[in-house]
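sorry for the late reply, my laptop died twice this morning and i had to redo everyting from scratch. anyway the thing you sent over, i finally got around to it. pasting the sequence first so we're on the same page, its 137 residues, then the predicted structure underneath. double check i copied it right bc i was rushing
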Amino acid sequence: MSLLATISTVAVASYALLSSVHKSAQALYARRTDASLPPYDPVDTGALPSVDVIVPCFNEDPRTLAACLKSLASQDYPGRLQVYVVDDGSANVAAVAPVHGSYAYDPRFNVILLPSNVGKRKAQIAAIRRSFGDLVL
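ok and here's the structure:
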């Protein structure tokens, strides 16, 4: 057996031994859950940061955009959530108009229609200028 093979075998065996000792120590010192703890206290939503989500769009497939906005609408974030959908001068704005319209009465959603294509970064900036959240995604 070569020196390299011996070193490799020793290294793997040492790793296995250290890993076993580590896992055993974790199991030994893990705290048990106390059933007498008070019930879960809901999160104070005023203490959570407000979140603005920017969705830049350009010639998107209406089904894809609808799925994206549906996913955002179904989020369970207890803090304030705003969604800014920025259409960057799409040629298919008439095709996605029903998708935009389906969120017209949801106060969390804002649709920004840019008259011409200015590029993704400038479209994002247009939404950032309207946003006021603590976190912008």
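The mean pLDDT is 85.
thats about all i looked at so far, will dig more tmrw
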